[in-house]
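Q: What would this chain look like folded?
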Amino acid sequence: MEEKKLNAPSATQVGQEKKSISFLFHLITITITLLTTFTSVRLTVEQPTPTEELLLIKSITPKMLSESDVIPATVRAGLSIFKYREFDMVNNNFIFEGTLWFEFDPSIISIETVSHFRFEKGDIVSISPVRSHLSGDRLQLFYDIIVKFKTELDYKLFPIDDHMLELVMVNTKVSPHNLIFEADGQSFIVAPDTESYGWIQATQEITTGYSQQAINTREPSLDIIRPAIQFSILYRRSGFKYALILLMPLMVFIIIMLTTFSYDPEKYFSSIMVANGASLSGLIAFRFVIENMSPKVGYFMISDYFFLIFLVLAAIIFLIGIFSLNISMRTKKMLILLVHGLLIMSFITIITYELSFSYHGTEFF
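A: My prediction, written as structure tokens:
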């Protein structure tokens, strides 16, 4: 019987083994990175994380009341929002229909004084003639209003951000020494069907106090103070679809560039460079898509940080691809692990920063 001899692998085969990476290796690393990304985004979306200041007005203190020569009249007030005509969280434009009401003792304060109100950073588009109702010694006034307003939105956590819509109403006729507002949790109602696509109303709150406008920083006594009510509504993203739409394409471009390490650069160098160049160009072009979907602000958002991280990694992989003929399989594997590790660390770092704004619940006030 003739013996079969085991032939040693040729030099070409050895070169191919040293310069190619198995599909299983890519599958494991990609799976770990995607699971980390998906889990991180999901955890952050589940936490309420508004970055806006909770209170835009100041509380009236007993000391302030004691400094007044007269006892200020107390006016109960409230707002019911029935419908949003415009709800644009990206461009910070809101228009709602609702009813604003006041309840007070007409023997202490006049209707004319109570009726002098306006909304800060807002315009009353339409207001109905006042409807009044007398109940005992208390007079109730009702105004059907349509208000267009902007609010103090902070987009630094975009696209995994929640927002606190804040609307401040002030009386422009008198100071807190003459009139103070009073309200409770039942004084502010937002209809459940006002929720906009992509956003869920978590909670709302009404806060009374006063608004202060500085006239001269050297003379605080000249500041204009007005009785004010702040209406606050917390809106949360209804899911992580929006975040994944922005982040996943960036991840895909990087994954495509990493998989080019599986090709033998001696045979497919031109194909590797074409794939890397196309992915890098696609990543840069996708920036315009992100820009169109993002709020127009002058500071960096999380989406900007993510894009810069992916862009730097893509540029590094592209440069490595140019010298891939001289890189061994061991070095390629280390580079792939390094890139995936940097992606995971970047996600964890940014997500940790995002969660630092979480109030761990819906009790914000």
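Residues 265-293 form the longest helix (29 residues).
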